[in-house]
Design goal:
globular; alpha/beta
Length: 721
């Protein structure tokens, strides 16, 4: 019997590692591993590029558009009708054109009635009828309050220069329920947002809903829901829109459906980047072209062309027609929406058909945002779709309720004004009399010295000062501060002008800080502040989904710090050399912007840790929809509900607006206080992030995507099949 024992499997002779077969196998594995590492590295780089690219493009695009068009609006080719006796009318028209040939487009008409009709039909922005040594200027504030004031500002000096008696008549005054004419503007803005926002999120979370046969009925139902919502908020709840219920509901439905149809088409062509295209068309270009907040004839000429076919102008002008002009001219605007919807749907069908022919077996787009709340993907479609519905519904509700509720009835409420007399007792007597005649409008404060009152106006303790006449100065003086708030100056000038006229006093004005020629509306501080806030917010929201590996605090802090340094410089370049809105002030604006962006980002990180992508709702609500009215950037906080005066001292957006104003016009006198506000927000937010990370597991990779428990087999195509 042999003494040899059979070798166990573990004792088998291993192949020679130097043999050709082994070398080939190991080499293939090494190549595969290297290729996988290369792909992973490329994906990581791509994710970080997206993290910075999308916020950069979106913020730069929006702020460039707003600052470039609205920092110093001036009339160009504004259509104005002139009527009256032939010699006088012709002479007035010639003088008007000679004064500024580029500002007006004068149309001579045969009669006063024809001129009035053109104004009411919005064929012209205003008209003037010259006869018997007088000139009547016709406007229609319901066609745009800013347009009416612009027309009057152009025509009144010419009337007076020719020795004519000036009369004015508003042919279509705004209703008492909407004295600022903001109802149509905010309605249109909310409806357009409701049209493009849902599909942008749906593509990343639930692409199966974008199949044509499923998307269209869903869009129709969504449009009906939003129409009912905005009507309920603006009508029964806020009382801004009164009457015209069927027309408002119909326009609202058509507006949402039309914009949604266009956005559905854009998602087919551009995928996730469709949101950038939507912002460009609907917001960056749409708002200046809308003719809603400012006359389109004060925007660059390009926007008068866009006014004829973009959705936001069509929705806004259609609502304006039915709310203020009994539906006159509404047909052309509705036609824009109908044609836009039909063309978009037809092109979507064509795109889907071509895609099916090219690749019949193509699968659905990948789910890139499996969960909107940042945790595991919901187990059932019911909860996933509920989150999808909540997101745009909350955004639209906040937009139409908070913004319109804050700004729909702009009237002074306890606006602080100093009253100066020869003595404090004389000033107090005047205060008592004025309080009785206009109770609740102003917080009048007796001051014994004009110099003291002027100091209070300059340091923004009071909005204005009314200096009574004295032996040394026989006329009254109104001291204002336009740079601290153009709307406040307009109000006090109008009211105290009437007070002086009622007492038969001459009134002089003294503005301690007039606005610059590159910031004639006082809006530069608000738009630049919006850029800071949006930069801080978006780097967190986009980064958490595009590059989740950036979320750990040790990575996030240096990333956000570098981003703040970069974006603060970019926004200064936009405000300065690119749009010409700001001259100089680089170092203080850059430094303050860095602090603002970083601290807003830390606050956004807290919300993102808690709510995932749904953090957009509270972040936009707090930082923008509440922050803008509380900032005093567009409307004085003394012309809004009292709660916004409290928020003015707390929120980041007001701190940003006031810091920029201080830098641009007041030598940086209050910047330290506003930096303290940012610092508190940043420090508290950073501490909260540390606490949250200790108790809640931090996701640093993509959310796992498991098919829903009740989800059918994946569809093969996002098409009509």
């Amino acid at each position: 019997m042999s003494n040899k024992t059979p070798a166990r499997s573990s004792d088998q002779v291993l192949p020679d590692p130097d043999s050709p077969a082994v070398t080939t196998t190991d080499g293939a594995e090494a190549d595969a591993e290297a290729a996988a590492l290369k792909r992973a590295k490329a994906e990581t780089i791509g994710r970080y590029v997206a993290m910075f690219f999308m916020p950069l493009v979106m913020v730069s695009m929006m702020i460039s558009g707003y600052l470039g068009t609205m920092h110093a609006p001036a009339p160009h080719d504004m259509p104005v009708a002139v009527s009256g006796s032939a010699p006088q009318a012709q002479a007035f028209a010639d003088a008007l054109e000679a004064a500024d040939p580029d500002a007006v487009d004068v149309l001579l008409v045969g009669s006063d009635e024809e001129a009035r009709g053109l104004v009411l039909d919005r064929e012209v922005s205003g008209a003037v009828h010259v006869a018997d040594g007088a000139a009547t200027v016709y406007t229609a504030s319901s066609a745009g309050a800013s347009q009416s004031s612009t027309v009057t500002g152009m025509l009144a000096p010419q009337v007076l220069a020719q020795g004519l008696t000036l009369e004015t008549e508003d042919l279509a005054p705004l209703p008492t329920s909407d004295p600022a004419g903001l109802g149509a503007m905010f309605l249109a803005t909310a409806l357009v947002m409701a049209g493009y926002l849902p599909f942008s999120v749906t593509l990343s979370n639930s692409p199966e809903l974008l199949r044509f046969r499923r998307a269209i009925p869903l869009l129709a139902g969504w449009a009906a829901l939003v129409a009912a919502l905005v009507w309920t908020v603006t009508g029964p709840l806020l009382g801004v829109v009164q009457g015209h219920t069927p027309e408002v509901l119909g326009i609202a439905w058509l507006g949402v459906f039309s914009v949604g149809a266009v956005q559905l088409l854009l998602t087919r062509f551009l995928g996730p980047m469709a949101v950038i295209a939507a912002m460009l068309l609907l917001t960056v270009l749409g708002m200046p072209a809308s003719n809603m907040s400012m006359s389109v004839y004060t925007m660059p000429e390009f926007f008068t062309v866009l006014h004829g076919f973009l959705p936001l102008p069509a929705v806004g002008e259609a609502l304006r027609s039915v709310l203020y002009f009994d539906g006159s001219g509404v047909g052309s605007h509705l036609l824009v929406l109908v044609v836009g919807a039909v063309v978009a749907l037809v092109l979507t069908l064509v795109f889907d058909a071509r895609k099916r022919r090219r690749n019949p077996d193509a699968g659905p787009p990948p789910v890139t945002v499996p969960s909107l709340h940042g945790g595991p993907r919901p187990a059932t479609r019911r909860w996933r779709y509920a989150a999808l519905l909540f997101f745009p519904l909350a955004m639209v509700t906040m937009m139409i309720s908070v913004m319109l509720g804050a700004m729909s009835s702009p009237m002074p409420r306890d606006m602080p004004v100093a009253v100066v007399g020869a003595t404090v007792d004389q000033a107090q007597d005047a205060v008592d009399g004025l309080d009785r005649s206009m109770p609740g409008l102003f917080d009048l404060r007796a001051v014994g010295s004009a110099d003291e009152a002027r100091t209070q106006v300059r340091d923004r303790t009071v909005s204005a000062a009314f200096v009574l006449p004295s032996a040394e100065r026989p006329s009254a003086t109104l001291v204002t501060n336009q740079a601290a708030g153009a709307s406040a100056k307009q109000v006090v000038t109008a009211v105290f002008g009437q007070v002086a006229a009622g007492q038969q006093l001459d009134l002089e004005t003294d503005d301690v800080a007039p606005l610059s020629t590159t910031d004639t509306m006082g809006s530069v501080s608000m738009y630049l502040a919006m850029g800071w806030v949006l930069s801080g917010f978006m780097i967190i929201i986009v980064g958490a989904n595009a590059a989740p590996s950036s979320r750990p605090l040790r990575r996030l802090v240096p990333i956000v710090a570098g981003w703040a340094v970069f974006m603060s410089a970019v926004l200064w370049l936009i405000a300065g050399p690119i749009t010409g809105s700001v001259s100089g002030h680089f170092w203080p604006l850059w430094g303050t912007g860095i602090v603002a962006i970083f601290c807003v980002a830390m606050f956004s990180a807290v919300l993102e840790r808690l709510f995932g992508m749904l953090a957009v709702v509270p972040a936009v609500g707090i930082l923008m929809l509440v922050g803008v009215p509380a900032s005093g950037g567009g409307l004085s906080i003394y012309m809004e509900p009292e709660v916004f005066r409290v928020l003015h001292e707390i929120l980041p957006m007001p701190a940003a607006v006031e810091a920029i104003r201080s830098i641009l016009y007041f030598g940086g006198d209050t910047v330290g206080a506003h930096l303290t506000t940012f610092g508190i927000w940043g420090a508290v937010s950073l501490a909260l992030v540390v606490v949250i990370d200790r108790f809640k597991p931090l996701r640093t990779g993509s959310v796992p995507h498991e098919p829903d428990a009740d989800e059918p087999e994946p569809v093969k195509e996002l098409a009509l099949v």
